[in-house]
Structure prediction request, 524 residues.
Amino acid sequence: MFAIRLSPVLLAGLLAAFFARAEDAPFAAKAEHVVLVVWDGMRPDFIRADTTPVLHALATRGTFFGNNHSVYITSTEVNGTAIATGCYPGRTGILANVEFRPDIHPFHPVATEHPQSCRRGDEVRAGKYVRVPTLAEIVQRAGHRTAIAGTKPVALLHDRGLDRAASHGSTVLFAGKSNPPAALAPITAALGKFPSYPDVETLSPNTAQNAWTARALTEQLWRDGVPKFSTLWLGDPDFSQHLTMPGSPTALAAMADSDAALGTVLTALRAKGVLEKTNIFIVSDHGFSTVDWAVDLSGALKKAGFTTVRAYTKEPQPGEILQVALGGSTAFYIPGRDPELVKKLVAFLQATNYAGPIFTRTALPGTFAMQAARIDSPDSPDVLLSFRWQDEKNANGVPGLLAAEGRRNNYGTHASLSRYDIHNTLVAAGPDIRAGFRDTLPTANVDVAPTILHRLGIPGADQMDGRILREALAGVEVAAPQPETKTLEVSTPTAVGTWRQYLKITTLGDHTYLDEGNSGPVPK
Ligand SMILES: [Zn+2]
Prediction:
C-alpha cells in the first residue's frame, strides 16, 4: 500500500488515525442521510452484472468489501442484532435465533425476534433484552427520526422500544406489523394489507412481501422526507435459498427481486433530491450453504443412551438435555449444567463424523471456550455444535456443503462456521464512501454500525466492538495495519481416534475476525 514510502513517524501517525475514535477525528461528512439495505442471506459471489445489476453497479461505483464477515452463530437474529449494535453476540445477548431463556419462558425455547420475547425480555431485564443500544436508538437519542422496515420480524430488534414519546416520530415496520401500532393504518390504506406468501409448493420467491415493505418505506415512511437513518430488511434471497438451495432458479429470481427493491430505494432518493446526500450500505446478515448430509442427531443421541427433548413440559429433570436445532449449528442446554453429562455429550459428538467445532462453557479438552467465538454470555448453552462442512459444489455448481439436523438433503441453510456461511455481502456507496474501491482488509457486520454513526457525526462508535471502516471513507488518508491470520487448534483422544478442530482468525490491530472453523486437520 501507499504506506511503504512514508517515514516511520508519519506512518505511526497514520496508523493512529486508522484506529482513532470518531470523536477525535477531524471530519466533515457530506451526507445527511444513511440508508442500510439488508439482503437476507446474500452471498457475495452472486453479485454480478447479470444477476444483480443495481447492486453490481453500486459495488463498482462505490466500495466493495471483499472480505466481510458475518458473526457466529451465522443466523438472522444474531447478525441482525450485531449489525444494529456494532457488538458481538456475547455483548448484545442475542446468541441464536432460538434460545432457552427460562426467565422469558420456563420450559420452551423462544424465538429471539418474536415480539413477545422482546417485550418479556425487556420486562425481566430492565429494558436490556438487547444489552447495548441499537443504531436506531442512538440516532433517536441524538434528536433524529429513524425509519426501519423489514419483511421479517428481525427488524423489531433494531428498534423495539414501546415508549415512542422521544422517538421523534420514528417507526419500525416488521413483517407487516408496526411500532407504534397506529403507524400501520395509513400504510395499509395506501398499499393494502401486508400480502401473504402464495404457497411453498409454487417454489417462488417472497416477491410480494418484499415489494410491499420496500414501498412502505419509500412511499409512506419517507412521505414527509427521508430521515437521518433508515433500514430496509429484505427477506430474500434467504427465504428462497432455504426453500430450494443456493444458485437455484428460485434463488436467482429472489436476488432479482431484492435488486429491484434496491432500485426502488435509489429511485425514491433521487426523486426526493437526496441521492447525492445519502450514504447507502448494502449488507447481508450471513452467507449460505447447501445441506448434503441430513443428520438424525436426536435419534443418534437416543441410541447412545441420552435423553433429549426439544422443549420441556415441566421443570427440567436431571439428565434431560434440551436440544435446539439452529440450521448449521445445534445448541444443548443441560439441567444444572451437570459437568459429567456435558463431558459425556462432548465425547459422543467428538466420535461422530458430522460434528464440526464444539464449544463449551468450560473449554473441555478438544473444544473451544464460548469466548473464542465471542458468544460467552450468562445465557450461553452448555454445549454448542457447529456442523462439519466442505468446499464441494451443490447441483447448481455453488460451493459450500454442510451437514445439519434434518430429514432431507439438498436444501439451503446456514448458521455454521463454514466459510460460506461466514463470508457475506457488504457494499457501500455515497458521497463519503471511496469510489471504485475494493477493500481487501477484513471487515465484519459489527463494523457497519460504528461506520454509520461516524458518517452521521453522532458519538457512540467507540462504545462498539466493531471498527470504523476508515480505509473505505472518501478523503480520509490512513495507512492500514497489516492483517495477520492464525489458526487455533485443539485436539483430544477419543474412542475412534484423535478429535481435532480449528478456528481460523484474522487480526487487524486489536480487532479480530473469525474466518472459519471446522473439524479435522487445519487445511493448507
Ligand atoms: Zn438471515
Notes: Residues 40-41, 76, 238, 285-286 surround zinc ion (CB under 6 Å). Residues 1-6, 21-26 have pLDDT under 50 and may be disordered. The first helix runs from residue 8 to 19. Residues 7-85+135-287+423-472 form a domain with the Alkaline Phosphatase, subunit A fold (CATH 3.40.720.10).
